[in-house]
Amino acid sequence: MKKLIAVLGLALVVFAGAVSADQSVRGYYRNDGTYVQPHYRSSPDRSYNNNWSVSPNVNPYTGERGARQPTYNDRPPNNSWDNGYNSNRRRW
């Protein structure tokens, strides 16, 4: 019974780590020639409020507190095209 509990506990820890794992991003050059330093980002999901850049969240790697205001519906603000949140999406 103790082995079963230990195995289930270990599986839970491994699963939780895989689900919430941060991702490393390699350095790259933007189209305008600007170099972006290697960095970490939180795992992608559909939540706006749990990003490190949203207040009161804190980036665990830099210690910076998020500056963006959280939204009541957990979606990006309407002006998301202007604030860089969706800058990697194609505009039609």
Count of helical stretches: 1
Largest sheet: 2 strands, antiparallel
Shape: extended
What is the helix fraction of residues, given as a range? 10-25%
- Ends distance: 58 Å
- The order of strands across the largest sheet is 1-4
Using the CA coordinates, give the radius of gyration: 18 Å
| Nearest-integer average pLDDT | 77
- Supply the helix-strand structural class: alpha+beta
- List the secondary-structure elements in sequence, H or E: HEEEE
Proportion of beta-strand residues: 5-15%
What are the segments in which pLDDT stays under 50 over at least 5 consecutive residues?
Answer: none
Q: How many E strands?
A: 4
Can you walk me through this structure?
It is built from one helix and four strands; from the N terminus they run αββββ. With 92 residues, it is α+β, with helices and mostly antiparallel strands. The longest helix is centred in the first third of the chain and has 18 residues, at 2-19.
Short key terms for the protein model shown above:
about 90 residues, alpha+beta, two-stranded antiparallel sheet
Can you lay out the helices and strands and say which pair or pack?
Blueprint: H1 2-19, E1 23-25, E2 28-29, E3 35-36, E4 39-41
Antiparallel strand pairs: 1-4, 2-3
